[in-house]
Structures are given as structure tokens and as C-alpha cells.
Amino acid sequence: MEPTNQPTKKSKLTLYIIIAMILGIIAGYFVHENYSPETRKAFADNIKLLTTIFLRMVQMIIAPIVFATLVVGIAKLGDMKTVGRVGGKAMLWFITASLVSLGLGLVLVNLFKPGVGADISHSDMASVNDLLEKSKGFSLQKFVEHVVPRSVVEAMATNEILQLVIFSIFFGIALTAVGKKGEPIIHALDSLAHVVLKMVTYVMYLAPFGVFGAMAAAISVNGLGILATFGFYIRDFYIGLILLWIILLFVGYLFLKKRLPVLLRRISSPMSIAFSTASSEAVYPKLVEEMERFGCNNKIVSFVLPLGYSFNLDGSMMYMTFASMFIAQAYNITSITGDVSQQIIMLLVFLVTSKGIAGVPRASLVVVLATGAMFGIPPEGVGLILAIDVFCDMGRTMTNVLGNALATAAVSKWEGQLEHT
Q1: What is the spatial distance between Cα 222 and Cα 234, in angstroms, rounded to a whole number?
Q2: In this predicted model, what pLDDT tens digit does every residue of 209-267 receive, in sequence order?
Q3: CA 3 to chain CA centroid, nearest Å
Q4: Strand pairing partners for 296?
Q5: In whole angstroms, what is the distance from residue 160 CA to residue 115 CA?
Q6: Is the CB of residue 155 less than 8 Å from the CB of residue 70?
Q7: In contact, 305 and 288? CB cutoff 8 Å
Q8: Distance, CA of 377 to CA of 357 (rounded, Å)
Q9: What count of Cα atoms within 13 Å lies in the side-chain half-sphere of residue 64?
Q10: What residues contact residue 314 under an 8 Å CB cut-off, 6+ apart?
């Protein structure tokens, strides 16, 4: 796709999203303060339909855009040597960023100790049961089943991005290997990618409505008071995210220099959508579009970004250590809180298990629930943070988007494939 400049439309969309976010908070607060719990829940369920419509519109184009862009990206890279080199650089960034995120979260949660003295009477076991179902049977066998697709149609139908990535990589490599016979398919998929990206423009018109619904639903049910109840936990987590941002932006500056502010302006709209809807999926198509407009080579974007959505979840990584250690502190589980070696082992387990459960709603909490059980963290502990998870999810999702944008731009620069636009 040729880079195009649409600063007015982009800035207007960001403005509309911010306005929708503010209006959603006001509407949600009004409902929470003036109506009964039953009415609040009914309002939240109905208003959230706006978010559901927006997210489902985005989800319907994720499978074709991941498949088309990744296959074309691999085909355009030309040979296995180039694919391996680009993939190696991307994975080096992903693993390093994940370890930094996990490690920083571990240091901060031990420093701030937000779980010490926490009121454990707020545990929401009704919602925990749903998460327990999702984490049931979490094992090496389930991990492999989640990563390796048995049907590309099934993977597309369920938007399993990691499985789509695996199939697309094999398909792209095979398409490259057959030479000229594969060229018509490459051209067709390239055209498909352009058509789907055009659809993104239309879908994004619904973003402010989705944002309004998400914010109004969250505030109407929980109210702003929930922020005070778990204020220290939320505050400490966002301090951690700010420090992680500083690290990521510093490393990004080493690669991009004066172009870093340009990148941040480009991804401001996707990041605002990610924050307000707490959905990485919601911004994937838009992020592809903005990274190409920034000047990243489309074959790098097509290859690195889908990988990042499975392997480079910086905000989620930090949240896993924060959530698990908060629960351990709240329940005074000294075998974890008093043993640094256990904490490091848990950190490394999170690094692996998080890759096998991407794409599941509330994936971070599902991983905490499943992996935490190995270290004696009680499931009811997750119920402590369910009520405020949506507010933390906003920050960690936006951080995931930032991390993937920086990774894609850095690898493009590293490969000498970053154009000035």
C-alpha cells in the first residue's frame, strides 16, 4: 500500500474517540448514581451492544487481513534466508521486551507491595468460575493444540491469530518455493489486502460509538468508587506502565531518532481505541494501515505485526506479574512473597504459558489463574481484581499496541526498509 497523508481525518477520529470516552464516563456515572443495581446491569448490557457491534465488525476482517498480508509479506521477502533474518530480529525484540516487562513488574510489585493488607472480602467468585472453565485443562497438550491449527477454516472462524500465523507462514514459504506458478495468487492476495484495508476505513467510523458503549458500561456497573477501593493497585500498575513506556520509547528513539514523535502521532488513534475498548483486536487492521503510512515497508509490517500480536504483549506481561504477586501478598502466601527464586521461576513460566493462550477474552487473567495454581495462588484471589480488571486492561492493551508498533518500526529500520513520508 502506498503511504498517504490524512492528518485531518486521523486527528478528527482521535478527537471523536476522546469525546466519546468522556461522554461514556459521564453517562455511566449518572446511571450508577441514580439507578438500582438491576437497572445499571440492564443499561450496561444494552449500551455495550454498541461496543459489541464495533468489535464484531473489526473481528470479521482480522482473519483475511492477517492471512493476506502475512502471506504476501513472506512472498515479497523473497527467500528463507530473509524470512529467517527478519523473523530472528523480531523474536529478539519480542523476547527481550517480554523479559523486561515481566522483570520490571516483579521489581515494582515487590517494592510497592500493593497486596499487603488488601481487603479480600471483595472476591467475585461468580465471575471466577467462568475463568476457571477457560483455564481448565491448561497443559502442554492444550498449549500445542492452541498453537498448531488442525483446520485453517476453524482458525479463521475463531480468529486464532497464532494459528493463522503458523498456517500463513507455511503457505507463504510454499508459495515462494513454487516460483512463477504462485505469482497470480500473490497478486490476488495483495489486492485482497488492499480491499480489506479499505474496509478498515469504513469500520473505524463506528469506533467512537464502540468507545462510548465500553466506557458507559464499565462505569455504570462499577462506578468510580471502585477506583478508590483498589486505588493503590491501579496506581502502582500504571506507574509500572509509565516506566515501561519510558524504556520502550528510549529504545525506540535509539532506532528511530527524530521520527519517533511522527510514529506516536500516527498511532495515536489506534492507541486511543485500544485504551477505551481494551481490545487489541479492535486496532489491528488500523495499526497495519498506520504503520505503512509511517513508512514501514509493507512486507515487514505484514510479517512482524501478526507475530507481535502473539509474542509481544508487553503490557499483558507486566500485568501477569503484578496480578499474581498482588494476590500472593493479599493472601500472605510466603512461599512466593518471601522467595525470590520462586518468583523468578514463576516469571519464566509466564513467559512461556502466555504464548499459548493469546486471543482468549481476559487472556492475562486466564494465564494468571492457570499458571498461578502451580505456585499455590488461590483461584478466589483472581476474584479480588476482576472488578477493576477493565481499568487495568485499558492500560495494558494500549501498551501492547505501542510495543508492537515500536517493534515493527525498529525491525523496518534495522532492515533498512523505513521510508521517510
Answers
A1: 14
A2: 988 998 898 889 878 776 666 788 889 999 999 999 999 999 999 999 999 999 999 99
A3: 25
A4: 418
A5: 34
A6: no
A7: yes
A8: 19
A9: 17
A10: 97, 98, 100, 101, 244, 248, 399, 400, 402, 403
> pLDDT at residue 402 above 90?
yes
Phi (first) and psi of residue 418, to 5 degrees: -105, 115
| DSSP-assigned states of every residue in 352-393 | HHGGGSTTSTTHHHHHHHHHHGGGT--THHHHHHHHHHHHHH
pLDDT tens profile 12-61: 887 888 899 899 989 999 999 999 999 999 999 999 899 889 888 888 88
For 82, half-sphere exposure in the C-beta direction (CA atoms, 13 angstrom radius) is 17
**CA-CA distance, 124 to 230, in Å (whole number)?**
14
Maximum alpha-carbon separation in the chain: 67
pLDDT tens per residue, range 118-170? 766 655 555 556 555 555 555 567 667 777 888 999 988 887 777 888 898 89
Residue 150: phi and psi, rounded to 5, are -95, -15
Q: Report, in angstroms and rounded to the nearest whole number, the Rg of the chain calculated over CA atoms.
A: 21
pLDDT, tens only, 303-362 = 898 888 878 889 988 998 888 998 888 888 888 888 889 899 988 888 877 764 544 446
Residue 418: how many CB atoms within 10 A of its CB? 21
Residue ranges of domains in the chain, CATH in brackets: 7-414 (1.10.3860.10)
Alpha-carbon gap, residue 73 to 376, rounded angstroms: 44
Q: What is the pTM of this model?
A: 0.80
C-alpha cell at 291: 504503520
